[in-house]
Write a structure and sequence with these properties.
By secondary structure, this protein is of the alpha/beta class. The protein has a single domain, classed as P-loop containing nucleotide triphosphate hydrolases (Rossmann fold, 3-Layer(aba) Sandwich), CATH 3.40.50.300. The protein contains seven helices and seven strands. The strands form two sheets. The protein has a five-stranded parallel beta sheet. It has a two-stranded antiparallel sheet with strand order 1-2. The longest helix is centred in the middle third of the chain and has 24 residues.
Length: 185
């Protein structure tokens, strides 16, 4: 499929979705999958953390260190509201963004949310040694953080188990959720 083939906004379960929000824990592939999905749809791609960094002029880690998580979450919600005004955009949310009820309302009103779910072993393997993740820690702390976030992730419109799948395979599974339009036939 060429990027310009999907020009209509897809409908799932009778709702028209102008954006797709990729949610889930750190290390589940949200940015990689989101970018690939956007390419396949011919839509724009936006990484929420990258947008926050651009707007703030600091990395996520620096914001956490200098101003704290509460300040970061406020920036995150502000940036998500701004981005949600776009259409035909695949947005990769940071790992904690979907835990906010306010952010879930924004995503529900403007698109569909897709939870990329992976077991802790996969997450630990992908994230160990990555200093760009301010909340990454040892196995017990990661287990607690993941378990505290699972209920929020479970509120996503769709759940995809990603263990053993490639970025391409995950993007294809998400794409299969949308019924064909005349432009995709």
């Amino acid at each position: 499929m060429t990027p310009d083939r999907m020009t209509e906004v897809p409908m799932v379960a009778g709702r028209r979705f102008s954006n797709i929000y990729i949610v889930g824990f750190m290390g589940t592939g949200k940015s990689s999958v989101g970018l690939r999905l956007a390419e396949k749809l011919g839509w724009a791609f936006c990484d929420l953390d990258a947008e926050i960094e651009r707007a703030a002029g600091e990395t996520v880690g620096e914001i956490f260190q200098d101003r704290g998580e509460v300040h970061f979450r406020r920036l995150e919600s502000d940036e998500l509201r701004r981005i949600s005004a776009r259409t035909r955009t695949v947005v990769a949310l940071g790992g904690g963004a979907f835990c906010s009820e306010e952010n879930r309302r924004v995503t529900a009103a403007t698109g569909t949310s897709v939870w990329l779910d992976a077991p802790l072993e996969v997450i630990m393997a992908r994230c160990t040694g990555d200093s760009s993740r301010p909340l990454f820690g040892d196995r017990p702390s990661m287990t607690a953080l993941l378990e505290s976030r699972r209920p929020a992730y479970g509120l996503a419109d769709v759940r995809i188990e990603v263990e053993g799948l490639t970025v391409e395979g995950i993007a294809d599974r998400i794409l299969a959720l949308f019924p064909p339009t005349r432009d995709r036939l």
